[in-house]
Request: fold
Amino acid sequence: MLMTNRLNWANLPLREYFIQNMMTLNMDTPLIESEEPKEQSQPQPQEPIQPPPAPRATRKRAQNFNAFFSALWIAIFVATLFTAWTPNSLFASNLQEQLRLMLTPQAGSNPAATPQPQLRIGIVAGHNGNDSGAVCTDANGKVTVTEADINLKIATLVKDSLVGQGFQVDLLNEFDTRLNGYRAVALVSIHNDSCEYVNDQATGFKVASSMDTRDVNRAQRLTACLTDRYHAATGLTFHAGSITADMREYHAFSEIDPNTITAIIETGFLNLDQNLLTKKTDLVAQGVVNGILCFVKNESVLPTGLPTILP
Reply:
């Protein structure tokens, strides 16, 4: 059989032989190849795809921003550390304790609950501890009241009222040793005038301050506050004409600390004003308290046109 095919192929003309062989070719094989084979283009190397660059200015600003706040926090911590490094905290254990306290969250402070330092006020009970002062007697010569007793009663009421309002108050005798170099926001000495009948105008009160005070303005303000508030509380008139040199040169003025503002008040005459002084002592004391509070609290003092009685 093979020989037969070979003979047939040999006897066939060239054209038929070619046709038969074409029928046996693989259909995937190209039928006709080009005379000049095309040069296959070499694949060009592709550049790697780069991510879009980040904006340099924005990145730089962010880096500067972070660096600034890092430096700020370091500076705050170092400043706090050096604040804690005082001569009393040179020991390591003490410094560690202070750092622990600083780094531990603390409960919020309440300003209203924080105790404020007490202001010191001095009240002198005139003549107390030394002598009786003015002495009042009845028709039989029996002593009915002494100035020292009235002064002490008024001074005690003034002290109790001021202490109840949060002040530190010293109740002082006439020649109290504590007066030497005494320091306070104010010192008020309480006295009264004579039991003798002088005339119908011998009524009212008087106030005087030191003539050698370092702060004349504040001394005048204390005097103005006492005058205004005492008159408003008691209704008594200001008896300016009977203010004597003894009042302006009161001994305690030269004994206390020169920075202490002081005044002396005579709350009334023990003759015509005796009923007010002995029966309404609380009202008298309240007038003195109001005058001191006016000064300490820097309250306004308006002109009142106080009536003045001349001797």
Notes: The two ends are 175 Å apart (CA to CA). The domain at 120-296 is CATH 3.40.630.40 (Aminopeptidase).
